[in-house]
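hi! just following up on the protien thing from before. the input was this:
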Amino acid sequence: MRTRTDWLAHAVLGLGVVLFAFPVWLIFAGATQDAGAINRGDISLLPRLSHLGIFLSVLRNGDGANPTPIWHMLMISAGMALGIAIGKIVISLLSAYAVVFFRFPFRMLAFWTIFITLMLPVEVRIIPTYAVMADFHMINSFAGLTVPLLASATATLLLRQVFLAIPDELVEAARMDGAGPVRFLVSILIPVSAANLAALFVILFVYGWNQYLWPLLVATDPRLDTIVIGIVQLIDTGFTLTPWNTMMAMAVLAIIPPVIVVVAMQRWFVKGLTEVEK
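and the predicted 3d structure came back as:
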């Protein structure tokens, strides 16, 4: 009975892998084929090995429609994703630390005020956020791409739950050893929560990498285009033929950095999501 159950689980897992991997393989194969053939629907599932150089060509020369090179778009996306991930973790770490370990007036009111922002959709907040960025003259700047996305109620909530699981004995031991608030945070709390912070970093990095709506609004300068914006700009507007092979090559290049982050931090990511007791 156990063998039969394992076989079924592996079959379902294999089916899931095929369903997720097939679109990626189709994009990879399409990138090596002729754009006209793709527009006619004559796309093959087998890549043309002689055309694999398109990835290097696109990376160096761009898409032909945007003056910004693809490598520069990738750098903007990477900087934006890293800035958002690190900024969210730092701010959420400090806010969760204050809510859990400090006793000050209206402490829970502050926490629930942060939590309520989860109920506001992005579309509701995006116009006032844009107005604030305009007042601070941060339109068409890298700071404008990242600063409005640094605060995270979700990360604060998750880290608060992690900190609540910290044993009281550990807190008392640190206090008896003379550790102050900063020392307790840096030397004890962060190392103990390292796996959770790593898992949160992976999630937030992918979130920042995939941003589309906010960069589209706040950055009209082509030098600040992210790779996601660059891909969308290639879509046919009705007047020209869409270079599907170039767009698919860009999509493959756009997938690589998040995949590297997830694979490199896979062990920490799984541990951070499954670890409950401290």
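The chain is about 70% helix and 0% strand.
The radius of gyration is 23 Å.
cheers
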